[in-house]
Structures are given as structure tokens and as C-alpha cells.
Write a structure and sequence with these properties.
The chain is α+β, with helices and mostly antiparallel strands. The chain has helices spanning 8-27, 43-51, 58-61, 63-69, 79-90, 104-122, 135-143, 162-171, 190-199, 209-214, 228-236, 315-322, and strands at 76-77, 179-180, 183-184, 222-224, 241-249, 261-275, 285-289, 310-314, 328-330. Helix 4 (63-69) crosses helix 11 (228-236), helix 5 packs across helix 6 and helix 6 packs across helix 7.
Amino acid sequence: MSHDKPGTAAKVFACVALLAIGVAIATQTSRPPSGDFGYTPDPDGTARFLAELSQPFFAEAGAECLDAIASDPEDVFLYRAANAAHLARYGEPWVVGRQGIGDCTSWGWAHGIYVSQAVDWELGRLPEPPLMPATESIYGGSRVEARGRKEGGGGWSDGSYGGACARWVRDWGVIYREPTGEHDLTEYDSRRAKSWGNYGNGGQGDSGRLDQAAKAHPARHVALVTNFDEAAAAISSGYAIPVCSMQGFSSRRDEHGFAAASGSWAHCMCLIAVRWQKNGSPSDGLLCLNSWGPNWISGPKWPADMPEGSFWISRPVVDRMLRGEDSFAVGSVDGFPFRDLNHRDWLSPAPGN
């Protein structure tokens, strides 16, 4: 009968523990904060919404934008318009917030609306810098009213999808972060989001009052984006893109600011900038803003002023994400005309680079 030498069991235990730690480190790159998903695809629901649009696809609605960048595409950084608008409206830089439940679709859409409206303001199409949209309204509206459900019919599970959010902001509209009616929406409240996800925009007993307020600010122009070139053309004319997909990413950016595709996230984020390989980037890429606060991801940034909490995605990965056909460009007050942004500070060379 053999016996282990003293301390062998402890050594084995230590090795197993170290192995477990190594596995955790290796896999943490694709593990998000707990509960911070919320994309629940409904291809049939999105298809029904698209069938209602006269120009459902950006390839048609934004054809002028695609033609304009075909010959000489330039890097464009729309987050600079959002930051300028935030400074003008609130007196402080724009810092991304953090979702508290699985309401990522409302955050992706709120970011898309805010960035696109900030561009409208800088181009003189809006008289004042925009307020931040209230995510709880988009979330509740997309789960209840946009799906034809009655108050209390949204259910208490989390999640929504791109087509439902697009229908809500187009057919109803946008409620902003300010006191509106009986609701003080100045600050995000995850408990409110949870409740409105069941009862709809305005919550229990609102009886449609906040729905009517939303209709004063419709985002009438939305169009489905299906590949990198369409997304780049939209961004190059000032139209941000809430992107819904099942693609996960590393929580560490590489030396060029890109995050590697890693794991699976049922998630919605927002595309807000474009860079091109011809201008020195290692790959054509789009900048993606998440809704997990500024510190969930680390690593080098490019350019130096890119928002905390964001990362670059390479062309092949963007194409794969957009093939899910539930990501929409958010248009201006008059649709998707090409807009020459060359006279603005949204182009390279970037500050600090």
C-alpha cells in the first residue's frame, strides 16, 4: 500500500486552484457584467416592421451616402459631436452610463438617437443641443406598445429587439431625460425600466399619457443596415447605428484600439465612428459604444479622445454582426441625405495622435 508524501495533496490542490484561475483569466475576455445583456431577437417581428417602410433598407434610403464615400472615404468620429452637444447642454463631458437590467436595446437606441441628433445640432438643423433620451421609455415602449400589447402585457423577463425599438421611436417617438408629466426622468432608474418593461411607456396607470408626449418627438427615419459599407456610409453622413447581434468581444483592446471577437453576447450596442485601412488603420473598422459604463474594457485607445467604454471592430466582424438584420441607422429630420462633414472637427487627424 503506497502513501502520498506529506504535502502532496496540498500541492495538487494548489495546482488545481491555479489552473482554475488560469481558465478564469482566459475566459474573462468574453464574460460581461452579470445581467447586462437583453437582446431577444424576433426575426418575424422585425420583418413585419420592415414591410411597413417605404424604404426599409439603407442601401436604398441612403444610396446617396453610399455613392459619396465610394471614391474617397475618410475617417469620421461622430462621438465628438455628441461630446460637444453634452458640454453645451450639461456643462460636462459625455461619459457613457451603465445599464442596470437586460435593457441594452434601449441604451443602444438612446445612444444612436443622441449621437444623430447631436450631429443635427452641430449642422444647424436643431436649434438647441439635444437632451439625452430616456432609456426606460424606449424599453417599455418597445416591449408593450410597439408590439400591440396592453398595459401589463410586457412580462417581467428582460429583453427587446431592434425592430421593436425602431417601431417605437418611429411610430411614437422619444422621451428625454427631464421631468415629463408625472415622471422625473432626469436620471436612469433600473427599477423603473423593469416596471415599464411590463406595463409599457409611462408605467402602470399612465393610460397613454406619456405615449402622447412621445409623439411630439418622433424619430421618423430609420433604415436597416446589412453590411460594413452601408454602416460606414451612414456614419460618414452623421447617422449612428444601434447594432443588435449575438457577437461577444474581449474586454481588452489591442494596441490599435480593436477588441477581438470572443464568445457570444445577446446584446445591443451602438456604432459611432469609422476608420479606414487606407488611412493607416490595421483594418477597416467601426467604433462600438457599449452600455456597461466606462471601465468594463481596458487597453490602448485610438484616437486618444475615443470614449471610455468603447472599442473598434474590424470589417469582417461587423459584417457578421449585421447579417443578423436587426440593426438600424437613425436618420435626421429629413431622412438620409448625404451630408458633407469635412468642414467639421470629426475627421482625422485626431487630437493627440
